[in-house]
Amino acid sequence: MKDAYAGINLKAGCQTLDGANALGYVRARYSDPLGDIGRVARQRQFLSAIMHKALSPSTVFLPWQYYGFSTSAGAGLSVGQDTSLRDVTRVLLAMRSVSNGDGLSLTVPISNPGLATSVGSAVQWDRTKALALFTAIKNDQPLTVAPSGSGT
Q1: What is the pLDDT of residues 63-80, one digit of tens each?
Q2: Integer angstrom CA distances of residue 143 from 50, 77, 134, 139, 147
Q3: 60: Cβ–Cβ under 8 A, 6 or more apart, which residues?
């Protein structure tokens, strides 16, 4: 994966990334034929990998590993003044559920992944499907996943 805008030039295959390369990996979109949609998929993949590593026995049962992970994770986390420990716990549990394949992670439905604008390419939402999604979230209704490739 080579993306000058993201500042990366990665070899093919599995590898361990340092901070700059990890950031470039999750930010890259110009080198990806799917653009922003591919970037979203990589961000999900990356968060899943972090959660798997965080919950591995080598992290949880070794105090120095756990301390290092939790300190780094905490430094990158900011919450609102009214956010409770319960709220943070619910988010972390939801992230764990999604990373295990048990939760739901979706994208706002799109109608055009490459909309030309005066400032470049953009992703255009499918207005009807997006409104239905936001209404379901607002009304705390169950969310459904459409078949792969449909934008949800």
Answers
A1: 888 788 778 877 877 888
A2: 25, 27, 10, 11, 13
A3: 54, 66
CA distance 76 to 19: 13
β-bridge mates for residue 112, sequence order: 124
Q: What gap in Å lies between CA 30 and CA 75, rounded to an integer?
A: 30
Give the CA distances from residue 145 to residues 40, 49, 54, 103, 109, in Å, rounded to whole numbers and listed in that order. Answer: 16, 22, 27, 11, 10
| pTM for the predicted model, two decimal places | 0.68
pLDDT tens for 93-130 read 887 787 777 878 888 999 998 889 999 888 899 999 99
In the numeric block, which tokens belong to residue 19? 């901070």
CA 23 to each of CA 14, 18, 50, 130, 141: distance values in angstroms, whole numbers, following the listed order: 16, 8, 13, 28, 34
The pair phi, psi for residue 103, each rounded to 5°, is: -100, -175
